[in-house]
Amino acid sequence: MPPDTSGPESSASGRAGPLDDYRAKRDFAATPEPSGNDGALAAPNVLRFVVQEHHARAMHWDLRLEHDGVLPSWAVPKGIPLDPHVNRLAVRTEDHPLEYLDFAGDIPEGEYGGGTMRVWDHGTYEALEWTDRKVTVVLHGERVQGRYALFRTGRDGRERDWMIHRMDPPADPTAQPMPATVAPMLATPATERPRHGAWAYELKWDGIRAVAFVEGGRVRFQNRNERDITPRYPELRELGRALGSTRAILDGEIVSFNPETGRPDFHRLQQRMHVDGDHRIRKLSQDLPATYMIFDLVWLDGHSLVEVPYEQRRATLAGLDLRGPSWQCPPHEVGDGSATFDISLRFGLEGVVAKALDSRYEGGRRSSAWLKIKHGMRQELVVAGWMPGERGRTGSVGSLLVGYYDDEGTLVYSGRVGSGLTGNDIERLDRALPQLERATSPFGAGSVPRGARFTEPRLVAEVRFTEWTPAGGLRQPVFLGLRTDVDPATVRREAPTAP
Ligand code: MN
Fold it and tell me: Catalytic pick from 204, 283, 355, 374?
């Protein structure tokens, strides 16, 4: 890329063509951009403008105004201001050819301005004033309408430094400035799913709660203590670009997935939480990459959504279509949460969060409109039989029959546990259980399935489950391991822990 030595005005003077700078920076065999056609196009009566969203190394918006047969251009790093209270930096760049008015495409990486160029807005404009130091225009675009002043701020030798200012009232008179901090809404612990009301269920993520502030294609992350944690997760920065000129405050959880288990792994994330130093942070972002799981939208384009019901916030969030290499909007399930519970258990996740559909966003509060239900029910249970595996595994253990002793010393059957048994577990049980086999059922209560094989009640399994059913069974039990340190005779049904 040739160095930019000439000021933008220099090209318009002398014998040089107005597009010399533009052409000198580009290899038209490599870039799809137009090479331009000096003055060959007849100047129309209506002057045109374009604003391109340019996903270059540093994202920016390019404002180009048709003038004297070319497009004088400014790169605006934070986008065209819609509010008269902010002046934004606008860097004068080289004049572009008129054909650039409808250019959109991918400029190859390594070429000048490499990255995707999209048309963000276009239309016509009137020039109220045009000098070397000041340009005042009225834009008639689809997204932007109104009077704007571009004025040079740089002293001699700094011809590139300009600012852009909106002279008309705010484009959206009801728009508010973006809040600088948001205290996240917190969930109340619960032991079971709510019985009344309309709820949605989400998976509970084991990571770091983070609120994302996105503006001008840039993102800033705050943790629960409202500390800026952006520099620690460089891979999440692309989220800012994905939102383009949309300004938003998102709520979610930063997690790190273990590629072997497919599960969020808090220990991986912990290795990234207290690291400083760019080199080390970059290395960790490759070795232990993070993903931002987005589950709420608190503010959008000048408007707070905290009073908007959860269900509607989620619908608006879904409309942003946020899916990327390092972020996603995991689904929520409206209803009784059975599918979410099931997935959460199957993947060994921490639990689920129930959210009242009509609830507002109660920032900073531990609210009963959000309930976190961990898969906290776990206890030891006596193994007293098994069911053979299905199809090709009939000679092998498929699930364990488990129970507990009641106060009279009766072994009460509480269900079968097959989920969570690994190949190693099954091998070990295939060896151990036949040696303990007996003909009669050791269970004194509960209805044992047909085809059961029974054993002496000598082994103890650690089992995780969601809840006790009204009939005294285990809902969604998962085998966690055998307990060699527990005397089977001491196994009782444990009371659920209070929230
Ligand atoms: Mn550009």
Answer: 204
